[in-house]
Amino acid sequence: MFNYLLRRILYAVPILIGVNLITFALFFMVNTPDDMARLNLGNKRVTAEAIERWKVQHGYDKPLFVNADAQGLGQVTDTLFVQKSLKLFTFDFEAGDDGRDIGREISHRMGPSMAVAIPTFFVGLLVYVSMALAFMLIRGGAAELWGLVALIAMMSISSLFFVIGGQFFVGKLWHWAPISGWGDGVSALKFILVPVLVGVLASVGESVRFYRTLFLEESGRDYVRTARAKGLSAGRVLFKHILRNSAIPILTGVVVVLPRLFLGSLIIESFFGIPGLGSYTIDAIQSQDFAVVRSMVFLGSFLYIVGLILTDLSYAVADPRVKLS
């Protein structure tokens, strides 16, 4: 187990470096440090001296990947990529281009993101698995057919439809909860209702069909036919055998989405005015704040790798036959 974890951690390092490299390349293909300086200085007629001064203050005065003016190893290390990347691996995100501490912003915004993501995750999992099990109980009938049609229709609808529909019906028409905003402590609960409802509904079609497919695959196995031949009821076979033996693929889908609990949802947080990490990332992209963008991309990649490792570990817990070496 220890050797497995060590190997996976070592594999993660080049992956994170590669993701960071792509982030740098893509961002600076669209924006130059001069463009970033003009945007942050907020003056169309800003002088060249002011631009250079801003670049020096924020560390954007070095070449991107190769410093031809440096000697030896400094040609690689004395570059924008290395100088801005090394501290990420120690989770020192420094300050954004607007001067605010990124680490402090992440710690403050993680709470609202998780306050929305955790209920959405658990409520959604309960709803999706329950509906998939219900489909197994009504197999072969007209109810299953029309249910599948409804699921496919929901898969075809953009998530923006659910956002706008939730804001209109739940917030504006029925006045159950505010359309957008945020509060501290218990007062934040009223702002969570609509985002959680929208988050669950937006994934119903895809998730229920996924779990239904898992249960259908298990229902055709020999142990299920044996259980039925012994005279066990459909409910007992479904809950004791099929659901239990579907634990590994369910764990795969569950653990991999863990990064979303920390990073939030870009669309939902932006539309509902939730001051979480998702809206923080969107604002950084719009303002071309590269310090925040690279920090959030790095953090998301790191958490995704952690999720994959936890998935493998959960396999070994759920099924003793799985050996990690």
Keywords:
single chain, 325 residues, mainly alpha, MetI-like fold, 0% strand, globular
Structure notes:
With 325 residues, this protein is mostly helical. It contains 17 helices and no strands. The protein has two domains: 89 residues, no CATH class; 217 residues, MetI-like (MetI-like fold), CATH 1.10.3720. Helices cover 73% and strands 0% of the residues. The N and C termini lie close together (6 Å). The mean pLDDT is 81.
How many strands appear in the DSSP assignment? 0
**Element order, helices and strands?**
HHHHHHHHHHHHHHHHH
Coarse shape: globular
- Rg (C-alpha, Å): 25 Å
CATH fold annotation of the largest domain: MetI-like fold
Q: Mean of the pLDDT scores? A: 81
CATH architecture annotation of the largest domain: Orthogonal Bundle
CATH class of the largest domain: Mainly Alpha
Q: What is the count of distinct domains?
A: 2
- Uncertain regions spanning at least 5 consecutive residues: none
Please state roughly what percent of the residues sit in beta strands, choosing from under 5%, 5-15%, 15-25%, 25-35%, 35-45% or over 45%.
under 5%
Query: Helix- and strand-based class?
Result: mainly alpha
Helix content: over 70%
| Ends apart, CA distance between termini | 6 Å
Major β-sheet profile: none
CATH fourth-tier homologous superfamily of the largest domain: MetI-like
